[in-house]
Fold:
Amino acid sequence: MSEFLAWIREWFGVDLSGYSLIRSGKKRIRLLTKEAAGFDVKDVIRGVYLAKKAPYGYIISVEGSYIIGREALRHVVELSEEEFRRWMKGEDIVVELPERGVYLVKFGPVFAGSGYYNGEVLHNLVPKSRTVEP
Amino acid sequence: MSDGIPEGLIKPEFERRYRKLLGEEYDILLSFMARKPTPSIRLNPMKVDPGWLVAKLEESGWVLEPIPWYEYGYRVRKGPERLGNTEWHQLGLYYVQEAASMIPPVALSPSPGERVLDLAASPGSKTTQLSEMMRHEGVLVANDVTPDRVDALIANIQRMGSINVIVTLSDGRRAPQFFGEEKFDKVLLDAPCSSLGEVRRSWGALARWSPKSINKIAKLQLSLAKAAYRVLKKGGVMVYSTCTLEPKENEWVVYNLLKLGAVLEEPQLEGLRWRPGLERWMDWEFGSELRKTMRIYPQDNDTIGFFVGLLRKPM
Structure:
């Protein structure tokens, strides 16, 4: 977990110490309030899925993009409305960004998950279940 | 054929009972039951400035009408055919939720920092509304009884970003054993029911209606309601709600909670038309206190039918 927190701090400039983070399986991380984490009950699940380990860092979920994006100092890409609508259909977007890596995607005040920029294209990491069907 | 409802669906005993309940208004009830309700959405203020989203939707041609009893609720007078297949829905900026279904959380009125239980929570419309009303502060436990129902609940909690929610899987009738006695400040029991109020969305409830099935489900509802009451702290409040108009599933259940010492309070909801609960029905004398419960008929606000009772556990 400390590796993930350090990555979030380094890559986005965000401190998540106000929340509780828990592991879910080998790769996934969930986020919840500290109060919900401290409540004693046999649960099925708590909070929301935040991120998943990937070779290039972490895939950030749609909900994670809100929580992190609102505080992020860097690595947020703002799309035009036309690009945003294509993004929400699951398409990759050709953009020019400062460096390779994971970016949070934004349109106006709205966050729309994350993508991986390989130097040419922002690859869409939004799961199909959260995209818009044609 | 009666007012657009397929022939044979309305059983003679149903007609006898509802004519007795509503008198001349029975035909108006049927005419509303025969019409699909106007779809409605609930905006998520924890993810987006509602004013921004409303402007964006209207810019795209949507025609929205505010729902008076919940500040983030809107009827969609004009909009896309599939409200669940838009960018905004997929990002969790709104939930497609019937206008009447927004009432129980408003009646419960949870505050940030409280410990709240939604005992029969799936698919999560009210859970996520409660979480937003709590501003994600405090603890909200969302329980349901089968893994299938819990899966739908988890998906909606994720989509709406409800970070103060804990999902549990247990038989609500055993809530005191599972959670412990007097554990929560507020409890919502939106009980499984005969769904008569939902006839506007599907004829199924009308087809299944029978006095025997009503009696069977009322027993389950009473067990759940008693369990919900036991996990409520002294001084705490509980909402008992259903989407049916059957007195046995509504007033009768609440009447039995009053016997345990619960005290009825009148919910405060702006702009909602409702009728007081029944004081008597068939052989039962419920008493005048039951007038504090809310009967919401489809024709009152152009919604599905609903019943809401707000109960306090004395100190």
User: Anything to note?
Assistant: Chain A touches chain B at residues 19, 31-33, 35-36, 39, 41-49, 61-63, 66-67, 84-85, 88, 108-112, 130-133 (CB under 8 Å). Residues 30 and 49 of chain A are 4 Å apart (CA to CA). Chain A has a mean pLDDT of 96.
